[in-house]
């Protein structure tokens, strides 16, 4: 089943076209990760599909209707997006921030109803942030803050959640914590998760569906087995990768890689990466 898709989508900034003639389908109820080198259009695509930025031509369709024809509140009840570096007002508590997720469902004076409060408390409980409800968001660790933002998205009660590099600036343990939470939300609540990731091995491990991009276009999409392949990584990242298997998930993983010769020939030739750390190409 597909609820969200694009057709011949073009997105740019001014005269510069970033996403070019892009047609894709997002599998419903699965985790999709978008991978690619810096500047390839990953974040732009995510923002375009969420109507954060306008598209120049083409169409984004959600539930059979163009998102450009859906009013803001209706769209916000279906789709939530967490930017790469979300910021909250200084001194805002965890409970206050999570309560903002109820905005699309409020009317009149915007006061929280009993149902709103129950949903907010549930979102904090699911994400393990309930003990921090009266704590200022600024006082939390990076991993805790990410869980609070995810709680806000859950309080929004959308079936689809977009996340732009949710593990950026987090250490390995907190990265795993956030990704396991997203996996749990997907498996237990059938949330459709779409995220931009830089770590190839994390993308392969936690995703049902991958989209590999280069220069605003899709090079390959599908399962990890279909996308994490030597020739695909060569085209997308300009690396000569050695592909193995994750001993815990049996999914493909990038064990090590060399930079391809050419423009990068003055850079150190060999770049090995620990299996657990993943690839940050």
List keywords for this structure.
single chain, 281 residues, alpha/beta, 6-stranded mixed beta sheet, 4-stranded antiparallel beta sheet, 13 strands, disordered C terminus, cell membrane, iron transport, Siderophore_ABC-ATPase, ATP binding, nucleotide-binding
Structural notes for this entry:
The chain is of the alpha/beta class and 281 residues long. The chain has a domain at 79-157. It contains 9 helices and 13 strands. The protein has helices at residues 42-49, 72-76, 94-99, 114-126, 142-155, 172-189, 200-206, 224-227, 230-237, and strands at residues 2-13, 16-27, 31-36, 57-62, 65-66, 79-82, 160-164, 192-196, 209-214, 217-222, 239-245, 252-259, 270-272. Helix 6 (172-189) links the parallel strand 7 and strand 8 (192-196). Helix 4 packs antiparallel against helix 5 (142-155) and helix 5 (142-155) runs parallel beside helix 6 (172-189). The two termini are 32 Å apart. It is a peripheral membrane protein. Keywords: ATP-binding, Cell membrane, Ion transport, Iron, Iron transport, Membrane, Nucleotide-binding, Transport.
Overall pLDDT confidence: 90
Structural class: alpha/beta
Radius of gyration: 19 Å
Low-confidence segments:
264-281
Distinct helical segment count: 9
The span between the termini is 32 Å
Total strands: the figure is 13
- SSE series: EEEHEEHEHHHEHEHEEHHEEE
Portion of residues in beta strands equals 25-35%
Q: How are the strands ordered across the major sheet? A: 6-7-8-3-9-10
What kind of sheet is the major sheet?
A: 6 strands, mixed
* Helix share bin: 25-40%
Net shape? globular
């Amino acid at each position: 089943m597909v609820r969200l898709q694009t057709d011949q989508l073009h997105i740019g900034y001014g005269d510069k076209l970033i996403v070019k003639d892009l047609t894709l389908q997002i599998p419903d109820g699965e985790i999709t990760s978008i991978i690619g080198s810096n500047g390839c259009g990953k974040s732009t695509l995510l923002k375009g599909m969420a109507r954060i930025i306008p598209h120049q031509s083409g169409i984004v369709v959600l539930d059979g209707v163009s998102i450009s024809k859906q009013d803001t509140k209706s769209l916000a009840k279906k789709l939530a997006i967490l930017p790469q570096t979300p910021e909250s007002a200084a001194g805002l508590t965890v409970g206050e921030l999570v309560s903002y997720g109820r905005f699309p469902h409020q009317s009149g004076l915007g006061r929280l109803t009993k149902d709103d409060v129950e949903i907010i408390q549930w979102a904090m409980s699911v994400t393990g942030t309930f003990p921090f409800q009266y704590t200022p968001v600024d006082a939390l660790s990076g991993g805790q803050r990410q869980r609070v933002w995810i709680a806000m998205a859950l309080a929004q009660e959308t079936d689809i959640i977009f996340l732009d590099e949710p593990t950026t600036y987090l250490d390995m343990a907190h990265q795993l914590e956030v990704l396991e939470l997203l996996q749990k939300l997907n498996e237990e609540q059938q949330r459709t998760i779409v995220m931009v990731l830089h770590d190839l091995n994390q993308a392969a491990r936690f995703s049902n569906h991958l989209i590999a991009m280069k220069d605003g276009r899709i090079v390959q999409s599908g399962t990890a087995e279909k996308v994490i392949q030597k020739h695909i990584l060569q085209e997308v990242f300009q690396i000569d990768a050695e592909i193995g298997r994750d001993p815990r998930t049996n999914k493909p993983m990038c064990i090590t890689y060399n930079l391809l010769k050419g423009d990068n020939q003055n850079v150190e030739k060999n770049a090995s990466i620990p299996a657990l750390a993943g690839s940050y190409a």
